[in-house]
TrEMBL record:
UniProt keywords, alphabetically: Coiled coil, Metal-binding, Zinc, Zinc-finger
Name recorded for this polypeptide: RING-type domain-containing protein
Lineage of the species this protein comes from: Eukaryota, Metazoa, Porifera, Demospongiae, Heteroscleromorpha
Database matches in InterPro entries: Znf_RING, Znf_RING/FYVE/PHD, Znf_TRAF
Zinc finger boundaries on the chain: TRAF-type: 161-209
Species whose genome carries this gene: Amphimedon queenslandica (Sponge)
Domain RING-type residues, every copy: 24-61
Primary gene name: 105312204
Length: 317
């Protein structure tokens, strides 16, 4: 473990004077882990150093029941959390700042190392003398430009994510024809329209040929007799015509049944309508007859009344 004396340490905030005695008088190192305190004089020691002493206090020489030792966890907590600069700050320019309890780890593992300035770099610390090379040649997060389309991003993004989809990235013909060297990815579709090794539909595909000859063999294929294919397609068509005939016959008789049914319904409705019409007329005549005979009766009565009055009148004069 690296040696650490009080004079090596530079605290961000000066320690209070009463707590400034932080060196073990036995090993002369700063006590960071497991400090113990002597009951006689209050002096702190490393646990491992004082464990070897049994008789008297190595600091004030007290002995017997005056001299007892106990662990001082509060002191450990307080001291361990103080912020210090790296002890090599002056010598090497190390910029590490951290809690005192971490300085030994820093000195043994990270001191003299620096962080890579590229955001997202997975390297935590790099030896200072290796940084330049790392930044320029090795860092996966270093700025990088796609040499095909000019897109700028990190090295790792361009290589792993962008290259597989860059439209200008040079690729081979998917059918590996030799008519072209590598072509930009975005030109592949156009190339396939002329590529001699790409499969094409037979021009008799509508007549039933499902072959996909290579473009360079397609002329030859079209010259081959397609008789078998044609015979098969024709018999399939005939079969379908028969089926459709049967079907339309069935549909026709179904329609005829519906027409008959509708005719019957129509006749029924006509008969209904006629009888309702007759009924209505009969009632109207009956009503008029009735009213007429009532009027005649009334008229007769009026006339006889009038005649009677006339007779009385004549009698009076
Ligand atoms: Zn010690
Ligand atoms: Zn003592
Ligand atoms: Zn350092
Ligand atoms: Zn880096
Ligand atoms: Zn690109
Ligand atoms: Zn090709
Ligand atoms: Zn064909």
């Amino acid at each position: 473990m690296s040696q650490l004396s009080r004079n090596d340490l530079i605290f961000q905030k000066e320690l209070p004077e009463s707590l400034d005695n932080i060196e073990c008088p036995i090993c002369l190192q700063v006590i960071i882990e497991e400090p113990c305190q002597a009951s006689c004089c209050g002096q702190h020691f490393c646990e491992t150093c004082i464990a070897r002493v049994t008789t008297s206090c190595p600091y004030c020489r007290a002995s017997g029941h005056n001299f007892a030792v106990f662990k001082d966890r509060n002191f450990a907590r307080f001291l361990g959390s103080q912020i210090v600069y790296c002890t090599n700050k002056e010598r090497t320019g190390c910029e590490w700042v951290g809690e005192l309890r971490q300085i030994r780890t820093h000195l043994s593992e990270n001191c003299g190392r620096v962080r890579c300035p590229h955001p997202g770099c997975p390297e935590e610390y790099i030896q200072a003398y290796k940084l330049k090379r790392h930044q320029e040649k090795e860092c996966p997060a270093r700025p990088y430009k796609c040499k095909h389309c000019g897109l700028k991003d990190t090295y790792i993004y361009i290589r792993q994510t962008h290259y597989p989809e860059c439209p200008l990235f040079p690729v081979e013909c998917p059918y590996k024809c030799t008519t072209v060297a590598k072509i930009p990815r975005c030109d592949v579709q156009d190339h396939l329209l002329v590529c001699p090794l790409s499969p094409v539909e037979c021009k008799y595909s509508a007549l039933g040929c499902l072959m996909m000859p290579l473009r360079m063999n397609s002329e030859e294929h079209h010259l081959e007799p397609h008789t078998e294919v044609l015979v098969e397609t024709c018999s399939r068509l005939l079969c379908r015509i028969e089926q459709e005939k049967e079907q339309s016959k069935a549909e026709q008789s179904n329609l005829q049944r519906q027409i008959n049914y509708l005719n019957t319904e129509l006749n029924k409705m006509r008969a209904d309508l006629r009888s309702q019409h007759d009924l209505l007329h009969g009632k109207v005549y009956y009503d008029i007859d009735d009213k007429l005979s009532q009027l005649i009766v009334k008229h007769e009565k009026l006339r006889s009344d009038h005649d009677q009055e006339f007779i009385i009148y004549i009698a009076m004069i």
